[in-house]
Write a structure and sequence with these properties.
Blueprint (H helix, E strand, L loop, with lengths): L2 H14 L4 H21 L10 H14 L1 H7 L4 H18 L9
Length: 104
């Protein structure tokens, strides 16, 4: 196992042990990859209105609120859980939860 994977494993174990500080560190660690996901999935008609960084900021807040779900129910990697939260927030942005004028 590489040093990077050891760091991921340590952060995930801290997160599962209900140490919320690990959540921020884990999100920061995966932020570039999550940003690429949002940038790829963002509908072009919304690209002028919605910034991927805004989606990630809302995603971090949503993940912080849902951290108990990860600690209790999620057996996959933290990245997959964070990606799921990010994509849910992106859907909310797309249908206009935060930007009603974006509704079709």
């Amino acid at each position: 196992m590489t040093a990077t994977n050891d760091g991921h494993d340590e952060l995930e174990s801290r997160l599962r042990a209900r140490r919320r500080r690990g959540a921020g560190e884990l999100f920061a660690l995966h932020r570039p990859r999550l940003w690429r996901t949002v940038n790829f999935r963002l509908q072009r008609r919304l690209a002028g209105r919605v910034d991927p960084d805004d989606v990630l900021q809302e995603s971090y807040l949503a993940a912080a609120q849902r951290i108990d779900h990860f600690q209790r129910d999620w057996s996959a990697s933290a990245f997959l859980w964070l990606r799921m939260v990010v994509l849910q927030v992106l859907v909310d942005f797309t249908v206009g939860t935060w930007y009603p004028e974006a509704r079709c």
